[in-house]
């Protein structure tokens, strides 16, 4: 039963959590969203500086809220890939320093493996194999979860990630950053069938379409064209209907691919992870389709969908329990495929 303190600083949240295997003792998140909002998106240099300013306070708060002192912590973990390198470095350096000072093993974690592990926090009895639909600001993937550290990517986006599409559409509608929550909220007051939008499909050289890969850049362009056309026809843009139609198209597209993938691979459970897992349209579509096909679908609570350190600590605890620790020379990496997670560990 490992107790792990983990740090997550891959993008714009400074987060520290303490987890005992799959049970959360504390989870503190300092969001930088208000800082980046004025620029309309995350500014990497600003993000790194914010992490530096906040990290010590967040570590103290996590220890205090979890009621733990260092004698009760078995390992220190940090996200080391993928993400903004300057941001990753802050959390990684803090975690390595704490590991050295308190003489604890260090466990590096892949950010996307963290998103997969978010489902274990609310469903501690969940066991592989299952399918993970990972939909965040940077990634959209269908991942076959075979075991801790053992993953196969069955589908992914060929261009924009689902969250990125929400953010870009919000920007063109002047709704601010991040786009997902505001579009979700406006969509609840709009008509999802108001404007038919194209679902991105990818042709296969052998004919037909790729069953699991997705594409969202065409959809974003279609929304742009629609907005330009409507602006010529009307003085007041039907923002709620545009948001609802866009969200409906994304939710339908993701649901179709996830269900087809689970059925074809004989996987009975779909665990959803990443910020877009918070989306109410996706939740409803996937839930309905899963029930119709007798599949189980798991959505983590909202606080574990978007970036947090509890999911990182949970992944780290599972690796640590299996004897996987990382060298203190482990670097921050902007990119690392989920299929290469085991590169982060030396086994004892
Ligand atoms: O997982 P996450 O916190 O960070 C990454 O690892 O990327 O995901 C952030 C993304 C953003 O693009 C944001 O717009 C989107 O998740 N998001 C949502 C919702 N809440 C956050 N997208 C759709 N609906 C939401 N309710
Ligand atoms: Zn994330």
Order of helices and strands: EEEHHEHEHEEEHHHHEHEHHEE
CATH level-two architecture of the largest domain: 2-Layer Sandwich
Largest sheet properties: 5 strands, mixed
What structural class do the secondary elements suggest?
alpha/beta
Count of separate DSSP helical elements: 11
Number of strands: 12
CATH topology of the largest domain: Nucleotidyltransferase, domain 5
End-to-end distance? 17 Å
Return the CATH class of the largest domain: Alpha Beta
Chain-averaged pLDDT: 96
Bound molecules: 5'-O-[(R)-(carboxyoxy)(hydroxy)phosphoryl]adenosine, zinc ion
Write the layout of secondary structure elements.
Elements: E1 3-8, E2 13-20, E3 23-31, H1 33-37, H2 44-66, E4 75-81, H3 85-101, E5 106-110, H4 111-122, E6 130-135, E7 140-147, E8 150-156, H5 162-172, H6 179-187, H7 217-233, H8 239-264, E9 269-273, H9 280-292, E10 296-298, H10 302-305, H11 310-321, E11 324-325, E12 346-347
Parallel strand pairs: 1-4, 4-5, 6-9, 9-10
Antiparallel strand pairs: 1-2, 2-3, 6-7, 7-8, 11-12
Helix pairs in contact: 2-3, 4-11, 5-6, 5-7, 5-8, 6-8, 8-9
Bound molecules: 5'-O-[(R)-(carboxyoxy)(hydroxy)phosphoryl]adenosine (KG4) and zinc ion.
Zinc ion (ZN) binds at residues 111, 115, 136, 274, 307.
Please give a structural write-up.
This protein is an alpha/beta fold and 348 residues long. It has two domains: 3-118 and 305-347, Nucleotidyltransferase, domain 5; 127-303, ATPase, nucleotide binding domain (Nucleotidyltransferase, domain 5), CATH 3.30.420.40. The chain has helices at 33-37, 44-66, 85-101, 111-122, 162-172, 179-187, 217-233, 239-264, 280-292, 302-305, 310-321; strands at 3-8, 13-20, 23-31, 75-81, 106-110, 130-135, 140-147, 150-156, 269-273, 296-298, 324-325, 346-347. It has a five-stranded mixed sheet with strand order 3-2-1-4-5, sandwiched between helices. Strands 8-7-6-9-10 form a five-stranded mixed sheet, with helices on both faces. Strands 11-12 form a two-stranded antiparallel sheet. Helix 4 (111-122) crosses helix 11 and helix 5 (162-172) packs across helix 6 (179-187). The two termini are 17 Å apart. It binds 5'-O-[(R)-(carboxyoxy)(hydroxy)phosphoryl]adenosine and zinc ion. The site of zinc ion has 5 residues, from helix 4. The site of 5'-O-[(R)-(carboxyoxy)(hydroxy)phosphoryl]adenosine has 19 residues, from helix 5 and helix 6.
């Amino acid at each position: 039963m490992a107790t792990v303190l983990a740090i997550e600083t891959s993008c714009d949240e400074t987060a520290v959590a303490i987890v005992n295997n799959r049970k959360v003792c504390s989870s503190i998140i300092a969001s930088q969203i208000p800082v980046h909002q004025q620029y309309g998106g995350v500014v990497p240099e600003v993000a790194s500086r914010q992490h530096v300013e906040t990290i010590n306070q967040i570590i103290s708060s996590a220890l205090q809220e979890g009621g733990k002192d260092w004698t009760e912590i078995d390992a220190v973990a940090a996200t080391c890939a993928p993400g903004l390198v300057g941001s990753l470095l802050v959390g990684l350096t803090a975690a390595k320093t704490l590991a050295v000072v308190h003489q604890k093993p260090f466990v590096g974690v892949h950010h996307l493996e963290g998103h997969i592990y978010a489902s274990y926090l609310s469903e501690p009895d969940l066991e592989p194999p299952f399918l993970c639909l990972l939909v965040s600001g940077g990634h959209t993937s269908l991942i076959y979860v075979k075991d801790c550290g053992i993953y196969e990517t069955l589908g992914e986006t060929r261009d924009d990630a689902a969250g990125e599409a929400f953010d870009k559409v919000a920007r063109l509608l002047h709704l601010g950053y991040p786009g997902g929550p505001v579009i979700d909220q406006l969509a609840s007051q709009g008509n999802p069938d108001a404007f038919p939008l194209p679902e991105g499909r990818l042709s296969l050289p052998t004919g037909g379409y790729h069953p699991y890969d997705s594409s969202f850049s065409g959809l974003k362009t279609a929304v742009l064209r629609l907005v330009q056309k409507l602006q010529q026809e009307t003085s007041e843009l039907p923002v709620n209907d545009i948001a609802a139609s866009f969200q409906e198209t994304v939710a339908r597209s993701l649901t179709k691919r996830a269900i087809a993938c689970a059925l074809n691979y004989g996987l009975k459970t779909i665990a959803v992870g990443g910020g877009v897992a918070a989306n109410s349209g996706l939740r409803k579509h996937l839930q309905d389709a899963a029930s119709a096909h007798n599949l189980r679908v798991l959505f983590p609570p909202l606080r574990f969908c978007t970036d947090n350190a509890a999911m990182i600590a949970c992944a780290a605890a599972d690796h640590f329990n299996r004897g996987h620790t990382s060298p203190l020379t482990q670097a921050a990496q902007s990119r690392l495929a989920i299929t290469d997670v085991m590169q982060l560990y030396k086994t004892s």
